[in-house]
UniProtKB/TrEMBL annotation:
<dbReference type="InterPro" id="IPR041581">
    <property type="entry name" value="Glyoxalase_6"/>
</dbReference>
<protein>
    <submittedName>
        <fullName>VOC family protein</fullName>
    </submittedName>
</protein>
<dbReference type="InterPro" id="IPR052164">
    <property type="entry name" value="Anthracycline_SecMetBiosynth"/>
</dbReference>
<feature type="domain" description="VOC">
    <location>
        <begin position="6"/>
        <end position="121"/>
    </location>
</feature>
<dbReference type="Pfam" id="PF18029">
    <property type="entry name" value="Glyoxalase_6"/>
</dbReference>
<dbReference type="InterPro" id="IPR037523">
    <property type="entry name" value="VOC_core"/>
</dbReference>
<dbReference type="InterPro" id="IPR029068">
    <property type="entry name" value="Glyas_Bleomycin-R_OHBP_Dase"/>
</dbReference>
Length: 125
């Protein structure tokens, strides 16, 4: 089974996400969107997609149960299949799975306690 197919996003905590995003826009040229992050679009011979860069508020609970100040989002081909395989391998897989127009999201905790987000994009993206 194909597992990770790319990096879907880099998410990190910030004392002031809006000011930090503005600094990255002004000094590094990131095209920061209204939702607070930037999308880097890419394409190769077999697929196209994007990688997100997003600062979150310092007190966000989105990374819980991890206390790490960042979270990596990996693109995957088959979220439910991968989560089942990870459970069978004894990994700490979170019970919650979110499915929406943005795709399917699941989470696993790495051996050092960091939350890792797994994302299966919607069909056709």
């Amino acid at each position: 089974m194909k597992r990770v197919t790319g990096i879907g996003g880099i998410f990190f905590k910030s004392r002031d996400p809006k000011a930090l995003a503005e600094w990255y826009r002004q000094h590094l040229g990131l095209d920061v969107n209204d939702w607070g992050g930037a999308a880097f679009r890419w394409a190769d011979d077999s697929a196209s997609g994007m990688t997100l860069w997003t600062p979150f508020k310092e007190d966000t609970g989105y990374f819980a149960p991890s206390d790490a100040p960042f979270m990596v989002n990996f693109r995957v081909a088959d979220l439910h299949g991968l989560l089942a395989a990870l459970r069978a391998e004894g990994c700490d897989v979170q019970d919650k799975v979110d499915e929406s127009e943005y795709g399917k999201f699941g989470w696993v905790i790495d051996p050092e306690g960091r939350k890792v987000e797994l994302w299966e994009p919607p069909a056709g993206s």
